[in-house]
Write a structure and sequence with these properties.
single chain, alpha/beta, 8-stranded mixed β-sheet, 17 helices, globular
């Protein structure tokens, strides 16, 4: 046959020792053998005979012919492939969460912290009156959303624990009247957690997200007190109190030195009693990611090594899992692309210590992005600008195979680097694409894990 083959918009990759094909338009993920991967790599613009001739020296000719027919049958390859249909998009639900920036102060001086503004912060503390007004606003703006969230952030929010406690007690008192269920999160450096706090977190089912970077050596190299001393042993004391209460403990670990592998960071945190770990990357003063800018393959090698290690230890699919890819798994299962990667100004907002409203906690101190205040009212004029920040509306993103997994980018980092909201930061895109490849390979393994468990039960 002389007709030339066409392929769908496919992303071919190899992760965790397996070959994968991702259909960028349908969100279908296929795990394939080496022959199918090679055929799809070669096929575009060639005749079937040409593809078979090219690959016959590497693989069995009849096997190549058979697999080529199968790929045509399932329409990954063809001669007149139908144009892609738009995917359903997750609805943009206005207001389902709010972050209370309860203190613009911290007892640490982490060496990579951008919030310190070159080593200086102006300490400010939220009052309970402000927190109550913010919660009332959430009840109003969340409309018919029954499930809402309240996050406590800083600075170090536990420096203002009494306001945090009062806010939770008030919200819990009002929630049944408003027919709401509230999920609470507190992001903390962990150094101030005592028995009383741990008991409160347990009583109110508050998820504790610790900022903790790994072993004592890794952690204490950057996460230090004002006098330069390390904070690791103080965090461990906080973890001890949390474990006594059987609290769920998550951690966000900042990768800040190329010599420390993700595998070593996560393993050490799990040994400390952490239930789930997320990896973040230290951001440079120019709002790039130095490691990735220097070596684009650095991130994916690290993440793949981490997943392989957890798999070898038979803990990758524990409940709860030690690491997770929740949004990617959800998107692959639902076949719905996220409207955007950012819910700032639309599904969530941040309230600063003085009651000013901002798109999210990253915009603390950015007066040009204020969205009104609790006293003056909610100015929603910024919402259309943030609703535009979706991959489907961005020229750069539309050319990317990951656009329907990703949804978009972080507008704060774009603004900080370029003074533009709608220009993605390339080093962050590299990280996300690498993350998605590893996440999809892990998803395929997870599906196998589920099938094996079902077969054996």
């Amino acid at each position: 046959m002389s007709h030339r083959l066409k392929s769908k918009e496919l992303h071919l990759f190899s992760r965790l020792g397996n070959y994968f094909v991702f259909d960028a338009n349908t969100l279908n993920l296929y795990e394939v053998n080496e022959e199918a991967h090679a055929i799809l790599t070669e096929a575009e613009g060639k005749t079937p005979g040409q593809v078979i001739d090219i690959l016959a020296s590497r693989f069995d000719r009849e096997a190549v012919e058979d697999i080529l027919r199968q790929l045509i049958d399932i329409q990954l390859l063809g001669f007149r492939l139908p144009p892609p249909e738009p995917l359903p998009v997750e609805n943009v639900e206005y207001f389902k969460g709010i972050t209370l920036f309860v203190t613009q102060d911290c007892n640490l001086r982490c060496r990579y912290c951008l919030t310190l503004k070159e080593g200086h912060i102006a300490p400010k503390y939220m009052t309970l009156e402000t927190a109550v007004k913010a919660i009332d606003l959430l009840f109003i703006e969340s409309g018919d959303n029954e499930n809402i969230s309240i996050g406590f952030f800083g600075g170090e929010p536990l420096l203002n624990f009494e306001v945090l406690r009062g806010a939770v007690e008030y919200a819990n008192q009002k929630a049944p009247i408003k027919k709401k269920t509230i999920k609470y999160t507190v992001t903390t450096n962990g150094t101030l957690i005592d028995k009383r706090m741990a008991a409160f977190f347990k009583e109110h089912n508050i998820t504790v997200a610790l900022s903790m970077d790994g072993t004592p050596e890794i952690h204490d190299s950057k996460r230090v007190f004002r006098d330069g001393s390390g904070s690791f042993r103080h965090v461990m004391e906080g973890i001890r109190h949390l474990k006594e209460q059987e609290c769920f403990i998550g951690a966000v670990a900042v990768s800040h030195d190329k010599q420390y592998r993700f595998k070593d960071i996560v393993t050490s945190l799990l040994e400390c009693g952490i239930n789930n770990v997320q990896i973040s990357n230290a951001i440079a003063r120019d709002y790039g990611i130095p490691f990735v800018d220097e070596d684009p393959d650095w991130y994916d090698k690290n993440y793949e090594e981490l997943v392989q290690h957890l798999l070898s230890q038979n803990i990758l699919f524990n409940d709860p899992p030690p690491i997770g890819f929740p949004q990617t798994f959800k998107t692959l299962e639902s076949r719905k692309t996220p409207y955007s990667a950012c819910s700032a100004a639309n599904a969530q907002a941040m309230v600063d210590p003085e009651g000013r409203l901002l798109p999210c906690e990253n915009f603390i101190g950015c007066r040009e992005f204020e969205m009104g205040s609790l006293d003056e009212g909610f100015d929603k004029s910024w919402q259309p600008e943030f609703l535009k920040l979706a991959a489907s509306k961005n020229e750069t993103c539309r050319a990317c195979w990951a656009r329907n997994l990703c949804g978009g980018w972080c507008p704060f980092f774009s603004w900080s680097k370029f003074r533009l909201l709608d220009k993605p930061v390339e080093s962050m895109c590299i990280v996300k694409r690498s993350y998605f490849e590893v996440a999809m390979a892990t998803y395929s393994l997870y599906q196998q894990h589920i099938r094996q468990n079902a077969a054996s039960s």
